[in-house]
Amino acid sequence: MVTTTSDYIIIGAGLSGLTSAYHLNKSGKTDFTILESRDRIGGRIVTQNGIDFGATWFQTHHETVIGLLDELGVAKYHQYNQGKSVLVYSTMAPEHYFENDPDTPSAYRIKGNSQALIQALASPFSKKIKLNTSVTDIHETKNGIRVETDKETYFAKKVIVTIPPLIATRISFTPELPSEVNNAMNKTHTWMSNAIKVGLTFKTPFWREKNFSGMVIGQVGAVTELYDHNDDVNSHYALMGFVNEGLRDVSEENRKQRILDYLSKYLGAEVLDYLTYQEKDWSQDKHTSCETIKSIYMSPSYGNPVFAKSYMNGRLRLSGAETSAIHGGYMDGAIYSGINVAEKFME
Ligand SMILES: Cc1cc2nc3c(=O)[nH]c(=O)nc-3n(C[C@H](O)[C@H](O)[C@H](O)COP(=O)(O)OP(=O)(O)OC[C@H]3O[C@@H](n4cnc5c(N)ncnc54)[C@H](O)[C@@H]3O)c2cc1C
């Protein structure tokens, strides 16, 4: 079995791992390898047909996202929210319509979709990323850390584990991590790992033409949240939202029919003339989820202090959105922890 040696190994090519790599690279620490189990980079950030099936929005208080986008020269723009929005709040009462307050800025989106951030981050060191490489074991040795994967064996002086803590419990650590770390990992819900997203593309932005914002909100129907998902110059037309988790276990065909019926009821029959229709149930994605999720969104607390410590004699650190004490779960937390862990390892 081939053995590759580097100063640093980063496990996971999601936003956090790529941010750490970007910071190491920027600081002249270029001897690193990134191991990623998927056949793509980005983790919970994925764009298909111009639709973000993972992370999409951020707010003005997400300062590390904004700082990183500015540094990389990736532009942002506001989520479209003009016109009538629909609130479906009861199965018995009629729907309500409302206008969004023009003085309250909507959330930001990334120009070129969220994948633009991932591509800009990874481009300086894309050759150092090993895709389709799943880490199975992490062993502390006399001089460093040995990382076993389903392919090669890797060796490094320092290792950053960026995979969601609950997923990281699948890895065998030798010596074992302290029990308080294991407990914290087991209790840390992976943010949004229960979400089901739906995205549709269209020939025309028919909802805008009818003075709808594209926003349809309510917990009682097939889609709990829907938004306009056109690009920043309004040349690619799409709607994207979250599917009611009550439809997780029905057949694909049945779910699609109920989603289309629901959306056409509130936005018009034009919904049925979609160009593409796609869903993504993150609970079925083994690289993000390992839970049997049957319930609604949880209210997890992130950034357990045990995640901020180093292990294996200072050679192993944990990172990722769920480990972050600031804006845990969000892109902002992923970037914050990615920067933080890289800085700690360069001290
Ligand atoms: C549907 C959805 C909607 C979201 N919406 C928003 C939003 O609007 N705004 C926002 O701020 N955040 C949102 N988020 C959260 C956001 O996506 C995350 O905060 C962020 O992407 C996490 O980055 P990360 O690097 O910490 O983790 P991840 O992206 O999960 O990266 C971890 C990486 O590790 C890899 N991996 C797993 N196991 C192994 C292994 N054994 N060996 C090697 N590699 C492995 C994974 O494939 C993955 O690439 C959303 C998430 C989802 C799923």
TrEMBL record:
It comes from Zobellia amurskyensis. Coiled coil: none annotated. One of its GO terms (molecular function) is oxidoreductase activity. Belongs to the flavin monoamine oxidase family. This is FAD-dependent oxidoreductase. Signal peptide: none annotated. Residues 15-81, 105-343 form the Amine oxidase domain.
